[in-house]
Amino acid sequence: MAISTNHVASLSKPCISSFTTLKVLSKPNNYFHPGQSEFKRSSISCNVTSEASTLTINAKENDFKTLQRPNSVGRFGKFGGKYVPETLIPALTELEAAFHVIAVDQDFQKELEGILKDYVGRESPLYFAERLTEHYRRPNGEGPHIYLKREDLNHTGSHKINNAIGQVLLAKRLGKKRIIAETGAGQHGVATATVCARFGLECIVYMGAQDMERQALNVFRMKLLGAEVRGVHAGTATLKDATSEAIRDWVTNVDSTHYILGSVAGPHPYPMMVREFHAIIGKETRRQALEKWGGKPDVLVACVGGGSNAMGLFHEFVDDFDVRLIGVEAAGHGLDSNKHAATLTKGEVGVLHGAMSFLLQDDDGQIIEPHSISAGLDYPGVGPEHSFLKERGRAEYHSATDDEALEAFKRVSRLEGIIPALETSHALAYLEKLCPSLPDKAKVVVSCSGRGDKDVHTAIKYLQV
Amino acid sequence: MACNMRTDLLISQICPTSGHVSVKRRIGNASVVRAVVVDHNSLVKNIIGSTSSLMMRRPTLPNPQLVEETDNERKGCNGKFGRFGGKFVPETLISCLSNLEAEFNLVLHDAQFQAELATALRDYVGRETPLYFAERLTNHYKKNNNGEGPEIYLKREDLNHGGAHKINNAIAQAMIAKRLGRKSIVAATGAGQHGVATAAACAKLSLQCTIFMGTKDMEKQSSNLVLMKLLGAEVKSVDGNFKEATSEAFREWVGNLESSYYLTGTVVGPHPCPSMVREFQSVIGKETRRQAMDKWGGKPDVLVACVGSGSNALGLFHEFIKEKDVRLIGVEAGGFGLESDKHSATLAKGDVGVYHGTMSYLLQDEEGQIIRPHSVGVGLEYPAVGPELSFLKDTGRAEYYSVTDKEALNACQMLCRLEGIIPSLEASHALAFLNKLCPTLPTGTKVVVNCSGRGDKDAEMILNHKYYPMEKQFPASQNS
Predict the structure, then answer these.
(1) What is its EC number (chain B) (predicted)?
(2) With a CB-CB cutoff of 8 Å, which residues 340-369 of chain A face chain B?
(3) How many CA atoms lie within 13 A of A130 on its CB side?
(4) How big is the CA angle at B124 (ends B123 and B128), to the nearest 5 degrees?
(5) Does residue B419 belong to the interface with chain A, where contact is any CB pair within 8 Å?
(6) How distant is the Cα of B399 from the closest Cα of chain A, in angstroms?
(7) Would A308 disulfide with which of A263, A383, B96, B133, CB 3.0-4.6 Å?
(8) Omega before B381 within 30 of 0, i.e. cis
């Protein structure tokens, strides 16, 4: 179910917002300091254009901070929304209402906290990567300090469980007995199967047939946990196709079924909900940073597929303009090839899987099949809030190729004894470009969003281990 | 208690040609036998290489009776746990082991080392691991017993970096190796978890790493093999399984004593290895005590752990050994059943002997030859057991039972379907024993089971096993 468009006329209503043009003084340390720069103000209506590059990347701090993210109709600026068939509107409304109830329910929050602690194993450490720091130290002895936020240590091996737990508790509240999910790398599928076993619910996971082959370990795990794994053969048989199939199932079974969407994509309230369940990553990071060095991180780096681990880390710091936010997408075989998944760099605005966001589409509005060596980043869309942060210039988005990710996978395994997921390896790969430009002792926190046990066979194939 | 042995046999085994041997024997509680061999390098290699090396005839003992333990014996001072333990090694290794012991004693009291270790355990390994109340598991046993039954808690060592308890010891010993100025580490691994943990610790601390692994184990735990290589370790294959890998690792170490460090993964081996590994694993029990106090204001009533050589069990038990109101239960691998010859139930079916440098129970035949063990849990396939566990058996402080392969596989599926946790097949042995244990325990009893590792490494094998799917009580997609 994909509606991709790049025409203004297809929008139901225009959105009005004000932009400011901000001239950034270039500083040798490349820091973004809006308070110290000249700016001029102009207000314009926002139009959806076909040229992503014509959007000016500017923001004014106060305007930004007062914006509700999302607003009451699920918009992040012009992005987001609920582009779904009528059949799903009551379910989404019910879900949103239930979410707002639990957000302020102390008993629920306490139960969730207990499960995150005793079952998931939180809080996850903020680990000083000494050898990686040394690797980036310059000949004059200067360089940033690299910290890894260890979401790989969570039960099931990635950040996905944070959201799966929250949503299954919600589903139980709503009296749902049947859970469906989509999965790319399999981590969200395993997390969903896990929570369904834990809470005694039926579980069906949709997974692209190609992903089932390259992430076979996770298929085994889901089956052991009692989930039914349904292979999807349509399209490229990857994440986007699995998502479409899951939505199709939900439309058919909406009364009995809750759809645990695994990322900050999809129709409202999912982007907000999933972000809130992952926001604990950033909250812990703030506290841990204060304990360790008495301050905040200077730079946050995370890989971006749909964008959930990145939003989980960033959200706490979005209003702290002195904290730089960097998302790293999958450049696959290179941005100039047709084989990548760098949505925010090469995509255009349209609607996919229920939300308006950037996506990889051709001139006819058809989805361009993405590619990444990592199944979890192999997605042609991206969460609407990331599109918003890009448009406002609050976050920067870069990319890393398959080869760069594999190199980073090997590097971190050998230097720190931590085998990162191939998805995570994209964030780690970007350090090669980032670190030379950072000032001495700059504090960089990288979201180590998952462990790489599931990727060993891919690694053997490519790295000839 | 006298420990009988045939000293003439011992002399002929150690020094087939000639050589000076002195054997000390004392009659009493602490019976010590130490064979001292004048060093001949080739002799050393022959001795270590032979699987029947340093075997003693089974002493003619009366039925095991409760031996009164002294505090020193319990603590393993001088490497002895009652009559078990010791340092049955060639002279070449004695000074090396003494240095290691000295360094170990130093680090125990070195505040900086302890602080660095605590940071590594917290930030790298991910400690402390939770003490998790397994609600559905608890209700499962109560439902089958008219609503009566204990509360079951899982100590989640599966959440550690690397996926098992092994890293607690590997990281600490790698740090000691660095202190000693060693550049390379040598280790042996069965299921691969200790190999992975050692490889990870070596990568982090910039140490060269060589892991020995049996070819049979490599086939069964191939994913761990790949992980070790990705972490930068050199993996050397040895014909056989863990016991052959251990012997080969020892041999490699003996050839490079100055530059390399033998990183033992479990509580066997010559003193100070058992004590060192126990000390580094004891964080499990220490945390459990504190968490139990937080959760229910008391101590656990029963501790259950699987026993291969015994490191995770001792790690959990050690903190509570003095407290006789805490029951200690070790569960060994019953394989195809104790009456078959395909099992690894050393404490149930073994006899006392010396193996890999230590005196303990081991699976040996009438001629003192090692019986090849079997278990579906590769990490439990070891024909001996830690000397301290042997001591706990003789003194009656701990109870030991066994479960079969089939029971372990069934328990694995049970935990997957009821709690959404995939335990390792080794840990599944401890869980399997709950079937027999829980019906005997009154409501309100607090049982802590050591979930010593995660089962990702076993997932494919379990799904393809002839015993899978298990009994009908845990079908897929079950509503509770």
Answers:
(1) 4.2.1.20
(2) none
(3) 11
(4) 60
(5) yes
(6) 29
(7) A263
(8) no
Kindly list the strands in the beta sheet with A79-80, ordered across the sheet, starting from the edge strand earlier in the chain: A2-3, A348-352, A355-359, A79-80, A75-76
* Interchain CB contact of A179 with B (< 8 Å): no
Number of C-beta neighbours around residue B39 at 10 A: 13
User: What pLDDT does B243 receive?
Assistant: 81
B422 with A225: Cβ contact below 8 A: yes
Catalytic residue among A78, A149, A160, A240: A160
Q: Phi/psi of residue B35, each to 5°? A: -95, 125
Res B247: pLDDT: 87
Q: How far apart are CA A187 and CA A201, in angstroms?
A: 18
Dihedrals φ, ψ of B63, to 5°?
A: -55, 140
**Does B467 contact A at CB distance below 8 Å?**
no
* CB-based contact, A126 to chain B, within 8 Å: yes
CA distance B247 to B241: 10
Q: Position B194: which residue type?
A: H
The first and second tokens of residue B207, run together, are: 């140490």
Give ipTM to 2 decimals: 0.86
From residue B365, give the alpha-carbon distance in Å to each of A145, A317, B200, B370, B374.
Answer: 58, 67, 38, 7, 15
- The rounded average pLDDT for each run of 10 residues, N- to C-terminus, in chain A (465 residues) is 38 33 32 34 43 48 83 95 94 95 95 98 98 98 98 98 97 95 94 97 96 91 95 91 93 94 95 98 98 98 97 98 98 95 96 96 92 94 97 97 97 98 98 98 98 90 76
Supply the pLDDT for residue B356.
87
Q: How confident is the model at residue B71 (pLDDT cuts 50, 70, 90)?
A: low
CB A361 within 8 A of CB A343: no
**Residues of B with Cβ-Cβ distance to A213 under 8 angstroms:** none
Contact between A453 and B223 using a beta-carbon 8 Å cutoff: yes
Q: Which two tokens stand for residue B280?
A: 């580094």
**From A182, A348, A385, A404, active-site residue:** A182
Dihedral angle computed from the Cα positions of residues B153, B156, B158 and B161, in that order, rounded to the nearest 10 degrees? 180
Burial of A216 (0-12, 13-18, 19+ CB in 10 A): middle
| CA pair distance B145, B320, nearest whole angstrom | 29
pLDDT at residue B281, as a whole number: 98
Q: How far apart are CA A342 and CA A8, in angstroms?
A: 23
A160 is catalytic: yes
- Please tell me the distance from the alpha carbon of residue A224 to that of residue B58, in angstroms, as a whole number: 45
**All residues at 6 or more sequence positions from A3 whose CB lies less than 8 Å from its CB, including other chains:** A83, A350, A351, A352
CA distance B188 to chain A (A): 18
Share of chain B above pLDDT 90, in %: 65
> B14 pLDDT exceeds 80?
no
Q: What is the spatial distance between Cα A386 and Cα A434, in angstroms, rounded to a whole number?
A: 20
Distance CA B305, CA B377 (A): 14
Which amino acid is located at B438 in the chain?
Answer: C
- Residue B259, judged by CB atoms within 10 A of its CB (0-12, 13-18, 19+), counts as exposed
Query: Using CA atoms, how far apart are residues B227 and A455, in angstroms rounded to an integer?
Result: 10
Interface contact flag, B231 A417, Cβ < 8 Å: yes
Residues 156-215 of B with CB under 8 A from A: 156, 159-161, 163, 199-204, 206
Cβ–Cβ < 8 Å for B1, B67: yes
Closest CA to B285 of B430, B155, B444, B389: B155
Q: Which residue of A has its CA nearest to B461?
A: A220
As given in the structure block, the two tokens for residue A98 are 């239930």
Q: Which two tokens stand for residue B63?
A: 């039925």
> What counts of helices (H) and strands (E) characterise chain A?
17, 17
**Quick one: pLDDT band at residue B74, thresholds 50, 70, 90?**
low
The pLDDT value recorded for residue B78 is 75
A240: annotated active-site residue = no
B296 close contact with A: CB closer than 8 A = no
